[in-house]
């Protein structure tokens, strides 16, 4: 399109639109475009490299690997409704099993219709064990009991799936805080990973979600799911920049193998298309 | 607020009386920023900005409103006009059963919406049945069955090709006197040609009266791509915008409407089966403007 050469007068307007299209957000799109312009790239390749450098610089500098040194390590996953939490837990369990670990999946979505069934069915497909709560049960109690069971039976990683909730539902945010507290009581230092799952197709509300969940729980990382669509998940740049929380995992499909380590350079390049 | 932002932008320019071109440009910059922050697609924002410019250029300032308030009034009116005022409820077919097909991306809220629409149909004096056609996602059929049982709504599913299950459901509905059949389909990407073809086969196999694209109100810029793709591949009659009980501004509503010309018909406002409302363009316009 207009993005043939940075020497073309329409180039920077086009670049800003490209970033907007990627859900980077208007103020960050303007800021990034300006930073690229100030580097005075002469060719398209130089402009791409400049953008990549600027995006990577804006992202968090924190490590992106999962902190699974503790035995057992507890990973708590949460996020808004339909983001991809349950599927991500299944994928992560499968990946950990492939890597020689012994994960225990905890089906702690005791609220949504067939929430437990879905997690249990996925665990079965992944060939891992599941600890299931009962519909209507207390999610925190399920997590507590699961961690006790994990310690007693030698599981080294406990993955806790929780019910979806909007950050505006204060009672549900309080419930989630209770789950995290109880997990900490069940095992000192837990949860070692506290991950917010974000749907890449969402826009600026992702930033509001991240801020709210971070304030309530303290995020150790983000999972960016559904990056196999046409949405680019650009809102994570602002989230990482403002909250210093690193995106650790990226979902690229609905199968067990479709979970990858987040690579900042790949992400920056994908924005450019 | 947007009015305040425009107000201070105009104040800097010192104009009064008629809104001069530079006043309008300054005001529209604030409007475009507000719409982008609300997730309205950037192309739709550009187009919308031009429309508002035409309407406000040369317009004398009303006595009762400040220039900023005037611009916001025009913006609000244009948004409401664009969002449309078509009949928004369910349209029942003259030849039952009325078949409503729900489609959309993964996790948008289709299964939940299926039961919500069934309850709406029942409140309007009909006998609905929901068909679980998502044979892909683990426990998807269980999810719909659980919801249907709780609400005492008829439920059907099957094995094999979804178009065959749907076709049998239509025959069954005729026999049991159910006059509304709601098809819950598996979430899919608009760029998955095979799965989009499945929807076409489904639509060809049964007399679908309404195809509704279920979309998350928090959807970002991608809404235009999704809307256009589903409209081209399958044909849609309207949208259900879900999760409006959150605090997303919901610009996707405008993006979808402008990109496809189809109206938003319903708003999902919670996880419970009763949490469905008819879409209100004026409320949506205020929400988008923040
Ligand atoms: N294309 C694609 N689909 C995904 C991905 N991750 C999850 N999904 C799909 O998104 C839908 C929702 O996923 P879930 O795992 O049920 O989401 P959730 O966050 O647990 O949902 P709730 O528990 O209802 O809040 C399912 O259809 C998944 O198959 C992904 O990376 N890519
Ligand atoms: N707060 C809120 N949650 C909703 C609304 N509609 C659906 N949900 C929730 O969003 C999540 C996803 O809903 P589903 O009905 O499973 O979505 P789906 O489109 O059928 O998902 P797939 O079949 O995987 O594509 C669930 O947790 C629902 O309870 C709504 O209007 N408000
Ligand atoms: Mg879930
Ligand atoms: Mg579903």
Approximate helicity band of chain A: 40-55%
Work out the strand percent of chain A: 5-15%
How much helicity do the residues of chain B have? Answer: 40-55%
Instruction: Please state the CA-atom Rg of chain A, rounded to the nearest Å.
Output: 20 Å
Q: What are the low-pLDDT stretches of chain A, counting only 5+ consecutive residues below 50?
A: none
Number of strands of chain A: 8
Mean pLDDT of chain B: 94
Instruction: Tell the overall outline of chain B.
Output: elongated
Q: Which secondary structure elements does this structure contain, and how are they paired or packed?
A:
The complex is a heterodimer of chains A (273) and B (290).
Chain A: H1 11-21, H2 26-38, H3 44-58, E1 73-78, H4 85-98, E2 103-107, H5 115-126, E3 129-132, H6 139-152, E4 157-161, H7 170-186, E5 193-199, H8 205-217, E6 221-225, H9 235-243, E7 247-251, E8 259-261, H10 264-272
Parallel strand pairs in A: 1-4, 1-5, 2-3, 2-4, 5-6, 6-7
Antiparallel strand pairs in A: 7-8
Chain B: H1 2-13, H2 21-37, H3 42-56, H4 67-83, E1 98-103, H5 110-123, E2 128-132, H6 140-151, E3 154-156, H7 162-176, E4 180-184, H8 193-205, E5 208-216, H9 223-233, E6 238-242, H10 252-260, E7 264-268, E8 276-278, H11 281-289
Parallel strand pairs in B: 1-4, 1-5, 2-3, 2-4, 5-6, 6-7
Antiparallel strand pairs in B: 7-8
Helix pairs in contact in B: 1-2, 1-4, 2-3, 2-4, 3-4, 4-11, 5-6, 7-8, 9-10
One guanosine-5'-triphosphate (GTP) sits between chains B (104, 106-112, 134, 137, 140, 186-187, 214, 242-243, 245, 268-271, 275) and A (81-82, 112, 164, 166).
């Amino acid at each position: 399109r207009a993005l043939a050469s940075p020497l073309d007068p329409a180039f920077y307007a086009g670049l800003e639109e490209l970033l907007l299209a990627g859900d980077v957000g208007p103020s960050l799109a303007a800021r990034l475009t300006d930073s690229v312009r100030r580097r005075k790239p002469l060719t398209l390749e130089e402009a791409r490299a400049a953008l990549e450098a600027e995006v990577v610089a804006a992202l968090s500098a924190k490590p992106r690997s999962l902190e699974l040194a503790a035995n057992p390590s507890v990973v708590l996953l949460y996020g808004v409704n339909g983001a991809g939490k349950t599927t991500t837990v299944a994928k992560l369990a499968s990946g950990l099993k492939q890597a020689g670990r012994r994960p225990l999946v905890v089906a702690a979505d005791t609220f949504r219709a067939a929430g437990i069934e879905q997690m249990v069915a996925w665990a079965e497909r992944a060939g891992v064990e599941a600890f299931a709560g009962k519909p209507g049960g207390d999610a925190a109690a399920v997590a507590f009991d699961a961690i006790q069971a994990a310690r007693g039976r030698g599981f080294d990683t406990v993955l806790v799936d929780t019910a979806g909730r909007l950050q505006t539902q204060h009672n549900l945010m309080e419930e989630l805080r209770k789950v995290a507290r109880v997990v900490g009581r069940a095992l000192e230092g837990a949860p070692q990973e506290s991950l917010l799952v974000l749907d890449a197709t969402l826009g600026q509300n992702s930033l509001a979600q991240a801020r709210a969940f971070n304030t309530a729980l303290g995020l150790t990382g983000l999972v960016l799911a559904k990056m196999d669509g046409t949405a680019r998940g650009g809102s994570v740049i602002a989230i990482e920049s403002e909250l210093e929380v690193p995106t650790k995992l990226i979902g690229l499909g609905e199968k067990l193998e479709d979970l990858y380590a987040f690579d900042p350079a790949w992400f920056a390049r994908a924005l450019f298309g | 607020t947007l009015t305040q932002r425009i107000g201070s932008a105009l104040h800097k320019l010192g104009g009064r009386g008629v809104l001069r071109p530079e006043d309008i440009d300054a005001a529209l910059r604030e409007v475009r920023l507000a719409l982008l922050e609300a997730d309205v697609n950037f192309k739709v924002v550009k187009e919308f900005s031009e429309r508002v410019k035409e309407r406000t250029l040369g317009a004398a300032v009303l006595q009762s409103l400040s220039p900023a308030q005037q611009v916001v009034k025009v913006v609000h009116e244009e948004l409401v006009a664009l969002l449309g005022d078509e009949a928004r409820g369910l349209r029942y077919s003259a030849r039952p059963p009325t078949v409503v097909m729900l489609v959309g991306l993964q996790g948008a809220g289709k299964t939940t919406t299926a039961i919500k629409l069934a309850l709406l149909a029942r409140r309007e004096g009909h006998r609905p049945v929901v068909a679980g056609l998502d044979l892909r996602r683990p426990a998807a059929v269980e999810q719909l069955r659980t919801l249907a049982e709780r609400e005492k709504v008829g439920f059907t599913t099957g094995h094999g090709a979804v178009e065959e299950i749907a076709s049998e459901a239509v025959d069954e509905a005729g026999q049991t006197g159910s006059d509304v059949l709601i098809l819950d389909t598996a979430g899919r990407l608009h760029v998955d040609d095979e799965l989009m073809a499945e929807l076409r086969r489904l639509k060809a196999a049964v007399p679908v009266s309404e195809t509704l694209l279920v979309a998350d109100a928090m959807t970002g810029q991608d809404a235009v791509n999704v809307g256009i793709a589903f409209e081209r591949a399958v044909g849609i009659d309207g949208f259900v915008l879900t999760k409006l009980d959150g605090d997303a501004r919901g610009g996707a509503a405008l993006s979808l409407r402008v990109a496809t010309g189809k109206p938003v018909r319903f708003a999902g406002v919670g996880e419970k089966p009763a949490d469905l409302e008819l879409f209100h363009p004026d409320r949506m316009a205020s929400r988008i403007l923040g």
